[in-house]
Specification:
By secondary structure, the chain is α+β, with helices and mostly antiparallel strands. It contains seven helices and eight strands. Strands 1, 2, 3, 4 and 5 form a five-stranded antiparallel beta sheet that branches. A three-stranded antiparallel beta sheet has the order 6-7-8.
Length: about 220
């Protein structure tokens, strides 16, 4: 039987004014059993961090990372009943919010860490969900930073097209060139549009209304 887990990614954000971050860990909480655990990037793996923030330096990152790991371990012991736990300055209120434990742990705060992506997953156990989240958000299946950015842009494009209810038409385009033309048409037509037969056999394209009539 699968269980439900709240999760959040941990982002290293040394320069808060830019709002840029590198994902270097995940936390998860069993919503029923209130079992908390986490996984964090090995301190020796600094390539992605330094690639994104060369001015941060290895020393700053490793010191901050090790401090965070200690604090998360204190939370894990306290929440899971493995010991008395420790007072954790990054998470000072988690004991006071029994019904909002996960919200307290991942609430916005000052410092070099943030929790940019939050969600909920079903999994058989904590180990399974953490492994899946690690692969998805930390390892990213071996993607480079550029590839990860490109994938994020692709996901955003799919979301926009899905919201506009024209994603199937885009996916049915016969080749990349047709998809590029499709996006150009979508951009020109704006928000008011309908779906009609496209310029390739058995395919679909978008039409939108303009003052002159049909957007082509």
């Amino acid at each position: 039987m699968k269980r439900t887990y709240d999760f959040a990614t941990i982002g290293f954000r040394p320069f808060t004014e830019t709002q840029e971050f590198v994902t270097m860990g995940v936390v998860a909480l069993d919503t029923t059993a209130r079992h908390f655990d986490f996984v964090i990037q090995d301190a020796r793996k600094t390539g992605r961090v330094l690639g994104m923030f060369p001015k941060a330096g290895k020393v700053l990152y490793r010191e901050a990372r090790n401090k965070l790991e200690t604090e998360l371990e204190g939370i894990r012991q306290a929440v899971n009943g493995l010991g008395v736990g420790v007072d954790v300055p990054i998470f000072p209120t988690f004991r006071d919010k029994e019904n909002g434990l996960f919200a307290a742990i991942t609430s916005p705060r000052e410092g070099v860490f943030c929790f940019p992506v939050k969600g909920r997953r079903m999994a058989a156990d904590m180990k399974t969900v953490l492994e899946a989240l690690k692969t998805r958000f930390i390892d990213q299946d071996g993607l480079t930073v550029q590839q990860a950015v490109e994938q994020e842009m692709a996901r955003e494009l799919r979301r926009v097209l899905k919201d506009a209810k024209i994603l199937p038409a885009y996916l049915n385009a016969p080749d990349i060139a047709a998809r590029v033309r499709f996006i150009g048409t979508f951009s020109r037509c704006g928000r008011s549009r309908s779906v009609a037969r496209g310029p390739w056999p058995g395919r679909r394209r978008i039409r939108g209304r303009s003052r002159a009539g049909i957007c082509r």
